[in-house]
Amino acid sequence: MSHFSKIKTHLTDKDLLLQAVRELGYTVNTGKTSIKGFRGEETPADLCISIPGEQYEIGFVLKGSQYQIIADWWGLGRLDEKTFLNQLTQKYAYLATKQSLTQQGFVIAREETAANGEIKLILRRMVE
User: Fold this and answer.
1) In-domain check, residue 39
2) Residue 89 belongs to some domain of the structure
3) Is 1 a residue whose pLDDT tops 60?
4) HSE of 104 in the Cβ direction (CA atoms, 13 Å)?
5) In CATH, what number is assigned to the domain containing residue 86?
6) Taking a C-beta distance cutoff of 8 angstroms, is the pair 121, 107 a contact?
7) Among 51, 87, 101, 102, which residue has the fewest nearby CB atoms (within 10 Å)?
8) Would the pTM count as exceeding 0.70?
9) pLDDT tens per residue across span 76-124
10) Structural domain containing residue 74
11) At a CB cut-off of 8 Å and minimum separation 6, what does 53 contact?
């Protein structure tokens, strides 16, 4: 019986996804084609994340234009599915926002992170 769960996401940009995962402190293996789960089961993945201290992995599979997260969460005892998804989604959105603003000519003048994790960006742009 498979323990793998799939989570649909709105993550579409591979480079931003890789950067977000790395900034969260995980190692990404883009050359690997499957992840491990319960009793050595494997399932295909386009990107694989190794979790320090865990024997199972987290994978990403491109479905259409969006990535799905796939993992055997039962075997990732120290990593909560919702916490991981929230952290990844926030980091990805932050990086996508910064990239978009930079392309529009904005510069981040100040950045503040509230106790609840909310990020506030103060922007500046020169107008001619």
Assistant:
1) yes
2) yes
3) no
4) 11
5) 3.30.310
6) no
7) 102
8) yes
9) 878 889 999 999 999 999 999 999 999 999 998 999 999 988 889 898 9
10) 5-94
11) 78
- Here the tokens at position 46 are 């386009």
Helix (H/G/I), strand (E/B), else coil: 83: helix
DSSP β-bridge partners for residue 44 = 34
Task: State pLDDT tens for residues 5-17.
Answer: 999 999 999 999 9
pLDDT band at 18 (very low <50, low <70, confident <90, very high): very high
Exposure string over 57-75, b if 16+ CB within 10 A, otherwise e: bbbbbeeeeebbbbbbbeb
Domain-located, residue 12: yes
For 27, phi then psi, to 5°, come to -95, 130
The answer to the question of residue 111 being in a domain is no
> With contact defined as beta carbons under 8 Å apart, do 49 and 71 qualify?
no
Q: What is the mean pLDDT of residues 65-81?
A: 90
13 neighbors 52 (Cβ within 8 angstroms):
no
Dig out the tokens for 74 from the structure: 């039962």
- The tally of domains found in the chain comes to 1
Confidence of residue 49 (pLDDT cuts 50, 70, 90): very high
